[in-house]
Amino acid sequence: MISKRRAFSLVALTLLLTGLANVAIVPIGNCEATTKSVLKFRPPSRGSLSTTRGGASRGDTAQVKQLQALVPQTSIGYTTAAYPSLMVYIPKTTAKMMIVRIRSADGKKTLFKKEMAVLQTPGIVRVNFEDAALPPLKIREQYRWSVSLVASAVDRSTATVIEGALERIQPDAQLTQLLAKADLQQQAFIYAESGVWWNVLLTLDDLRKAQPQNPALNQQWTSLLDSVGLGAIAQMPILDLKP
Questions:
Q1: CB 209 within 8 A of CB 65
Q2: What is the rounded distance in angstroms from the CA atom of residue 122 to the CA atom of residue 34?
Q3: What are the structural domains of the chain?
Q4: CB contact at 8 A, 208 and 218
Q5: CA–CA separation, 38 and 183 (whole Å)
Q6: Which residues pair with 125 in a beta bridge?
Q7: In which order are the strands placed within the sheet that holds 123-128?
Q8: Residue 78 above 50 pLDDT?
């Protein structure tokens, strides 16, 4: 259910996207970019919580030295996907192993656990679960996810851990109608206004990979991360992993 305030914003967004579809197109090599360059995430009105995102303060350039979850700090990460993807920033580290877990909301049931090698260079890791041994997420059910960096296979008590909450939602009729009329770039704006974090983040990541020389998409990526206090790591390279 969308609140009246957010419903009004979506109506305004519809008008914005109508204009966005007609703005000037700037040729950039073999790609085209709209002049719309600022994309900001609007946190949902429900689903607030404390997320263990990383050790650095919001907006602090020390983020580049900390394990960071690419999530808003006080919001549940909503997704419409049955099989989610997650993104984390891995700094330069002596850790040899990364452990990814997805658990039930109370933490008592582990639905997925995978140990993977850690990148040797700092960067953002996108963990895709589509082909993993993970049951599809149930609609309106919350899950806990975590990523641990482990330096010692013998003593894991010293591991660095970040965690967050994840919930799959079913778009309502208004949101579904907006999305059906929008291209992928417009969908990113719709998801950002609707508070569906993982959809806006991953949609924009996909667009940037398809059009790496598109300056508008790169600016939108930077402004999106900056809007949730993660601007310091916006320029880091991204690597896709399948556990």
A1: no
A2: 31
A3: 4-241 (2.60.40.2550)
A4: yes
A5: 17
A6: 88, 239
A7: 68-69, 85-90, 123-128, 238-241
A8: yes
Q: Letter for the amino acid at 123?
A: G
pLDDT band at 193 (very low <50, low <70, confident <90, very high): very high
DSSP codes joined into one string, 108-139: -SEEEEEEEEPPSS-EEEEEE-TTSS-PPPPB
Looking at this protein, which amino acid is placed at residue 163? Answer: E
| DSSP secondary structure of the chain | ---HHHHHHHHHHHHHHHHHTTSPEEEETTEEEES---------SS-B---B--SSPTT-GGGGGS-EESS-TTB-EEE--SS-EEEEEE-S-S--EEEEEEEETTS-SEEEEEEEEPPSS-EEEEEE-TTSS-PPPPBT-EEEEEEEEES-SS-GGG-EEEEEEEEE----HHHHHHHHT--HHHHHHHHHHHT-HHHHHHHHHHHHHH-TT-HHHHHHHHHHHHHTT-GGGTTS-EEEE--
The closest alpha carbon to 121, from 92, 149, 151, belongs to: 92
On whether the pTM is more than 0.85, the answer is no
CB atoms closer than 10 angstroms to residue 241: 16
Q: Are 113 and 99 in contact (CB under 8 A)?
A: yes
Work out the pLDDT band at 179, boundaries 50, 70, 90.
very high
Of residues 57 and 23, more confidence is placed in 57
